[in-house]
Amino acid sequence: MANGSLEMWLHPEENGNRQTRKLNFLQRLCIAIDVASALHYLHDHCDAQIVHCDLKPSNILLDNDMTAHVGDFGLARLISECTSNPSQSQIFSTGIKGTVGYMAPEYGVGSNVTTYGDVYSFGILLLEMFTGKRPTHEVFTDGLDLHNFVKTKLPGQVIQVMDPTLFTLGEVGEATAAAENMDDESIEDSVRECVVSVLQIGVACSAVVPQDRMNMRDVTSKLNAIRVSFTGTRN
């Protein structure tokens, strides 16, 4: 697509991309809504539920208008196809490779394919989009992972985990400091609440226990509500 993949925008320096533009908060939020809406359609509006099984930044493509499209369905599975034959379902689940860091933990122990797996991947994707850190970042050692890295800082210490390039000078008001000098006082309360709300959704979606995760219908609804709230602060 015209604007490449989300991977190229989140980590340009690692992909030999010289573009200096960064995705701001609203752009990332809109991309997240596009992806959530796509998964909501696959999970809830198809004749048979479709599980993507490999959601990650390199599989999110951006068109001329920066609208996001979910691509690469090479590992996708139909739930009806999987559940109609239990033995076949097990083959499908254990055969999934996925991508380290984005693959739901239950798949690693042979659990069957479910929509919960996509929700987990989306949660990790969302956290990566708004922290700027991959789930495989070198800082995540000794039991620390992206999920817990963010969860332990919410809501009061959100500045410590958010990507400093989310906001540019003046984007959230005259009192906003340059991104690299941000602290808790440099972002308006209403904007901080939007960032916290997005990250809380990411944390909820990437819960270890599948049944504790949100469904994509609710995720899409909440993200849209955050967009309405954020754009309202700009009027």
TrEMBL record:
SUPFAM superfamilies: Protein kinase-like (PK-like)
PROSITE patterns: PROTEIN_KINASE_DOM, PROTEIN_KINASE_ST
Protein kinase domain: residues covered: 1-230
Gene3D superfamilies: Transferase(Phosphotransferase) domain 1
UniProt cross-references to InterPro entries, sorted A to Z: Kinase-like_dom_sf, LRR_receptor-like_kinase, Prot_kinase_dom, Ser/Thr_kinase_AS
Alphabetical list of Pfam families matching this protein: Pkinase
Name of the molecule in the record: Protein kinase domain-containing protein
